[in-house]
Write a structure and sequence with these properties.
It is built from 13 helices and eight strands. By secondary structure, it is an alpha/beta fold. Helix 4 packs parallel to helix 5.
Amino acid sequence: MPTNAPTAAHALTDVTTSASALRRFLHGLPGVDAVGLEARAASLGTRSIKTTAKAYAIDLAISMVDLTTLEGADTPGKVRALGAKAVLPDPTDRTAPATAAVCVYPDMVAVAKQAVAGSTVKVASVATAFPAGRAALPVKLADVRDAVAAGADEIDMVIDRGAFLAGDYLKVYDEIVAVKEVAGAARLKVIFETGELSTYDNIRRASWLGMLAGADFIKTSTGKVAVNATPANTLLMLEAVRDFRAQTGVQVGVKPAGGIRTSKDAIKFLVLVNETAGADWLDNHWFRFGASSLLNDLLMQRQKLATGRYSGPDYVTVD
């Protein structure tokens, strides 16, 4: 049975003993065939999903949503409404599953925690000077401590992309390790901001770096830049978690975030999961969607499958 990162002994601990050893390992990873990667992602995206399988996939996707609000204008009332929606996405149909989590800034964690109390919905919080990550390590760790103290079940941290792109991999590794320690029992999602990493080779290296440092999830993006989750970069990260488990026995989750807005898109990503990492990842403990508007489309498509027609625009709330 695969284990979470904190409880398994890595078979690769020797590669993190020095900056030079870590660089040798990361640059020794196989180069990414960009043409082949994008062709495979596009091919898997054309798979036809029949009605019964589509209904299952929509419910699975709903259960994998991290329902997110990360705006400067967030208010307690907005967060409470979001929490209520996460717990009961469709008040007219209580068979609709709850979402996996709500994701908010650290100062809204206590409000979100109260809103989802008594349910299965987790509270995730972005931290480490999200979204840019431009802060000193003590400030980043204080950010994490605040979120955990307020009751966060999960922490979504951003890596120092400047350090990574400068080749200072050990600094990035050490920061993830430090955040993981401060996060304690909270599961740690490590955000790479793939749109800023420029190359697929860098995304592969970042994936392995995050997993070596103890990430429970690796996550594509903050949703705050032009290029966020894509089928190709998610496929690459799924290959990384599959290969990491094969080498270490440690299973790590994947979270594409930003730009996934329709049921059709979500189902394409689920096909990627099944065909690349395998059925073990088809569970919200191991795969999430970082999204705000996706849930509405999933609910409308779910209702269409159940009744044969689309409801009016007031069927779902506008978040």
